[in-house]
Amino acid sequence: MATDSEPGRRRRCCCAQDTPDVPKALDCRGDSDGPRRGSLCDRHCAAINNVQGDLGDLGCHLHRPRVPPATSTPCCCQQHSEEVCESCVLKTTLTAENAVEANKLSNNYKFGFKKWKSHVTARPWEDRSEIVKELYSDLNVIRGSGGSTLTFGNVLYLLLFGWWLSLLYVLVAAVMFVTIMGVPYGWLCWDLAGYFLWPFGKVIQKVEVPKSHQVCEAGMGESSALLGGAPPRRWHPRCWLGTAYWHRASTAVWLCLGYPVLALAHGLVCVTAWLLIVLIPVAKLSARATSRVLLLPPERVLVRRLRMTEVPLEGEVILCCYRAANPYYYKYAVDGINVFAVNLLPLVLVTLVLGYVDSSNHLTGSAVKFTLALLSIMPLSYYIGMAIASISAQSNFAVGAVVNATFGSITELTFYITALIKGSREGNRCYAEVVKSALTGTLVGCVLFVPGLCMVIGGIRHQEQRFNSRSAGVSSALLFLSVGGVFAPTLFSKVYGKLVCGECHNVTQNPLGHYLCHNCHFDLMDNNGTLYYSHVQPLVYTVSILLPAAYLIGLFFTLKTHTHIYDIHVSDCHMPGHHHSAVVHWSRWQALVILLLSTLCMSACADLATEHISPILTNSTISQYFIGVTVLAMVPELPEIVNGIQFALQNNLSLSIEIGNCIAVQVCMLQIPILVLFTIFYPTNFTLVFSDLHVYASMFSVVLMNYIFMDGKCDYFQGTVLVMVYFILLAVYFFAPSPSGC
């Protein structure tokens, strides 16, 4: 769900601190070793001026550009050349178009802040690639050589839309001919029928009518096709040309009989093509035809086929399309919002209407409503993430920290709290077990699946990827602490709890022989719950206080006293021609309103998901463990997974790893303590005692992740190991029996 919606050409200057390829003894100010020491500055400046990619791509490029010895590469800003060259071997330097974007990039490396790949400001048009510029074109540009028009996308257009759209134009043309007064529009529809059957390599022009043809000649008013004359074509206008367009009788006939039908057909084509994303050019074609072509006087519309040797056309070009499909439209954005998030937004409205209007399930069943509610969470998570990144980038550090801490986990907490409330009202312990499974699934998925998938996809493009092992070590230490604290009450209960089994059978028929028992668990309520209320519950409250305190200490450590661990420096260098003034997609107030509305819709969708999950839990043959650790855990994290993949493709694996680690740390240090605090004010069945399967899976995942991340470099093989281990754990959850109480 979250991609760089408008990628283009970026300038970057970057060097990782722990990269062994950069000699530490190099100094760009000396002249005894002139060629060698000066090359570091030259290479640094070449990386700023020549390397194309994302601003967040922080792989070291100082040793990659090859600058010819005789060529002197000017530095991007001479006044800071020595300062930048000295700090290059020590810091990761980010170069942004404006201060807001630089603030967002810097926030990506701060612990506890949401990592966001997409831009929060509008990029300068000249910085975008030709591919992206083509995505935003209005289909009115004639290219010298468009190549062959016989492509798979064009044939797909013919099969999906072209044949029936052309047939509809022929039928409308017949109706216009029958009305007599609509004959000019009949000829227009006839020509457009051929155009929309195969519009590629053709052009629709708006031509100017010569003034000499706009004056009625004597006797011309009695000449028509009905009296034996040749049928007047629209480029040979008759006397009705002198009449105002909107006052003509033919226009009234057209607007009543022809235009509504064609507008409805083009609207259907536009919506369908837009939802398919790769066919967005077809959507633009239909929208422009409806809003421009069909509302012009027929004598001013000219359809022509382009030829290689044809002279430039005179008049305004309204439509000129060469390709019906473009696979790069996944990068398309509307006001900074990715097209996938735009297309999924109507799904939220459908979910809310179906969920609250059809409460008795007359139209759809619980399974459909549950699926729609989960799918609606994905775009809402994207909007929440975009709003948080926008507010943080335009605010100071304190405001950004508060917004990230308050709304960073709002998606998961909303679902967990609504599920616990429903389980408490129904007296069903299964909801609490599902919440525990979702918490464990988020932890395991963010520790194994998210970084593993990013390593695999990033490793396909880059043979070996490096990351900041010190910053990853801080997150790993917090993760060890948080996992130990979360599962401490579970280990305590297993040591001092009383094992109770539901049913036991004597296998050997000997009173002293072996017994086979089922549904065994540690009973904490023995002796009126003395063990739980006197020992386990105080331990749970203590852990719930210490974990957020440790999280705050981690924030203070990484953001205040030891900021050098991340080695982030925002350069003052800007390329000539860059627009330094930030044009934000969402202002702070606009982002705040979107954040609150998205949170409100998220609460409603979470309520619908928990309302209709009960039949799935009771009637499904799949273990409730598996449903919790997969669907409920990973669907809300899809925008974060997409961000991590984008960072990995840009050779910035540090942020990909930090995305998973930060989510896992927030699950243990923020989300679980908040749930415990919630149970104090609203008693539920949630206790901080997990099953053995959750404990073993979480502990093993954290240990494996720390082992993989020790050396600060990785490849696709190590990522494959993490992903395979994650799928093995999913198989274990799939075949595991349902938890007790479900």
What keywords describe this structure?
742 residues; 13 strands; A middle domain of Talin 1; disordered N terminus; antiport; elongated; mainly alpha; 2 domains
Give a written overview of the molecule.
Keywords: Antiport, Calcium, Calcium transport, Ion transport, Membrane, Phosphoprotein, Transmembrane, Transmembrane helix, Transport. It comes from Toxostoma redivivum. It contains 22 helices and 13 strands. The protein has a three-stranded antiparallel β-sheet, covered by helices on one side. Strands 1-12 form a two-stranded parallel sheet. Strands 5-6 form a two-stranded antiparallel sheet. Residues 1-90, 212-242 and 574-579 have low confidence and may be disordered. With 742 residues, it is mostly helical. Helix 13 crosses helix 18, helix 13 (430-461) packs parallel to helix 19 (638-649) and helix 13 (430-461) runs antiparallel to helix 22 (716-735). A hairpin with an 8-residue loop joins strand 9 (503-506) and strand 10 (515-518). The protein folds into two domains: 125-207 and 248-331, no CATH class; 332-502 and 520-735, A middle domain of Talin 1, CATH 1.20.1420.
